[in-house]
Amino acid sequence: MAFATLVRQHQDQLYRVALRMTGDVGTAQDVVQEAFLQAWQHLPGFRGDARFSTWVTRIVINRCHNVHRASRLTEPLPDETTGGDGLPTSPAAETLAVAAQRREAVRQAVVSLPFEQRAPLVLTTFGGYTHAEAGRILGISEAAAKVRAHRARRALADRLRDWR
Amino acid sequence: MSDDGFPGIPFDGAAGDERLPCGTSVDELFAHVVDDRAPRDPEHQRRCPHCRAALAELRDVWSPVEDLAAEEVRAPAGLLDAVMARVRELSRNPWYASLPGPRGHTRVAARVVGVIARLAAESVPRVTLALGQGHTGSAASAADIAGPAGEAASDIGVAGTHVVVDVQIVIDYGAPMHEVARQVREQISRDLREHAGLTTAEVNVTVVDVRT
Q1: Most exposed residue of B27, B33, B39, B184, measured as fewest CB within 10 angstroms of its CB?
Q2: What is the pLDDT of residue B13?
Q3: Domain limits of chain B?
């Protein structure tokens, strides 16, 4: 079935966006599933791939906007960073644990940003979209997307600096 | 848009005006680290201890962001199957009641219309149950109207804002069937209009049993 191919093609990218937007694995999965269903219902037989990508990403972003902001972050940290008892067991493991902790701080800081900043930040920094693509997805100009993304990166850095 | 910075943009409140003792704006350094923008004065940046310290700190702050961005993220294994299962389920019930509005369409799943119809029928006095599996209404071709196969309570067809309902009821023994059926029709039409804004084209009532 053609739609399954479409899902297979886009699921990782959409999930990545949803995960960074919501900070929660379960919520992200729900968002992506519902977005695919919405896409399927509204455009049966849709083919144009570039436009499909923009359009379905916009659905994901809108759904993330509507989702109640995840209050807890349930994405598990990589297992290899900790020993059996949950504590670092070697200097190398300790370094890894610190790195994992810092990534976790980034995850939380991203989720804490207001939606207007979070969306362009997630799309560009984490989703790999250009400012022009992010603008198309968000329905704003490339210039506006660029300004908002930059502002968001600065806010993110300030927050991370404050937390140190 | 030009690529030479964002003059005058306030960054996160007062932080936008933050300057190092050497006069370099923190935001310029930040753009250098994060957006890979060339420094205005590379020679100064290379030699100035304030700039170098600030750059080192910014790079350190930003590196976990880059780590996280580089992390491989894959959709959960069950996602595709879950989507396709829902798609198959929806394919079986492809028809929705559709209510055009000024700011977009409202679609009501056929199943929901069925539930409203069943509850409406059961709210009529002396109807003890609305049950059974009827078949899709005969008022239109299957292409215009389709009801979900195997709908447990009442069989309904929906096309646009018009609904055809087949409902099977069980009534109290001794109740006037014709009168009860008329009330069921009225109740279903009224509830669908009031709750879902739908027009009932046809309500076919079948009395399948009586309860003593």
Answers
A1: B39
A2: 42
A3: 13-70, 94-211
